[in-house]
From TrEMBL:
It comes from the Bacteria. This is Pseudouridine synthase. GO terms for cellular component: cytosol. Its EC number is 5.4.99.-. SMART domains: S4. CDD domains: PseudoU_synth_RsuA_like, S4.
């Protein structure tokens, strides 16, 4: 991933000192790692860091030295979780609401959700401590497909469907083209299948409002090649090695790490 040099890169105050992470990866002594940082040879999540006060989360942040990603050996956990309604996709909630982490057993590592689902939405959520993969999966450059079953108020006509497919102008700009099809129609509502390749805040709800069909329910049924299958709300399973490899391939990590192009 190409790094962007920012003179005033924000300094984190939590986590592990960047130079310590580089030293623990076996690339250099801590003093030599400090010099690497000063020389602008180190980037965190695509942003060049030149201050020694920067701290990172080794399990979540992507650290790049001289154009190559480094990592600290840690047991990697990959969970496919069926997020139920009425829980938040954060590690902690200031309002004291239940979080997805509250519903997962302790695996001995710090797991975090990849992306988010609204408090009242349900469906597939990936949880991992593989920050390198998690960051790439969320990066708009890779456009990972996210598939939803969405119940909307009223019965969308051809014009509404066309607008959803071609893009809706929201506060951030125009949404990317989406795949939209009708699953079934009810007397006063309709179920749509929507595939997005981006993840703006409350995007589906705002798209529905924009075309005059407020969203009533959201269920994510697929994330890239992963599907819910027979999982029930609140249940989870670990990903197979094949599924993890497939995710790595989607975000071009396997090729970079093995030197293949």
């Amino acid at each position: 991933m190409k790094a962007v040099h920012l003179e005033d890169t924000p300094v984190d105050v939590k986590g592990v000192r960047l130079q310590k992470v580089i030293a623990q990866a076996g690339l250099a002594s801590r003093r030599a790692a400090e010099e690497m940082i000063r020389q602008g040879r180190v980037a965190v999540n695509g942003r060049v860091v030149t201050t020694l006060g920067c701290c990172v989360d080794p399990g979540r942040d992507e650290v790049i030295v001289d154009g190559k990603t480094i990592s600290i050996a840690e047991k990697k956990v990959y969970l496919l979780f069926y997020k139920p309604k009425l829980c938040v996709t954060t590690l902690k909630d200031p309002q004291g609401r239940q979080t997805v982490i509250d519903l997962i057993p302790d695996f001995g590592v710090r797991l975090f959700p990849v992306g988010r689902l609204d408090y009242d939405a349900e469906g597939l959520l990936l949880l991992t401590n593989d920050g390198l993969l998690g960051n790439r999966l969320q990066h708009p450059r890779y456009g990972i497909a996210k598939t939803y079953e969405v119940k909307v108020q009223g019965q969308p006509d051809a014009e509404a469907l066309s607008r959803l497919r071609s893009g809706i102008v929201l506060e951030e700009g125009k949404t990317a083209p989406a795949e939209v099809s009708i699953l079934r129609l009810l007397p006063k509502a309709g179920w749509l299948r929507i595939v997005l390749h981006q993840g703006w805040y409350r995007q589906i709800k705002r798209m529905g409002e924009a075309v005059g069909h407020p969203v009533l329910k959201i269920k994510r049924v697929a994330y890239g090649p992963l599907t819910l299958g027979k999982l029930m709300p609140g249940a989870f399973r670990t990903l197979s090695a094949k599924e993890v490899r497939r995710l790595y391939q989607l975000v071009q990590l396997e090729e970079e790490q093995t030197g293949r192009k």
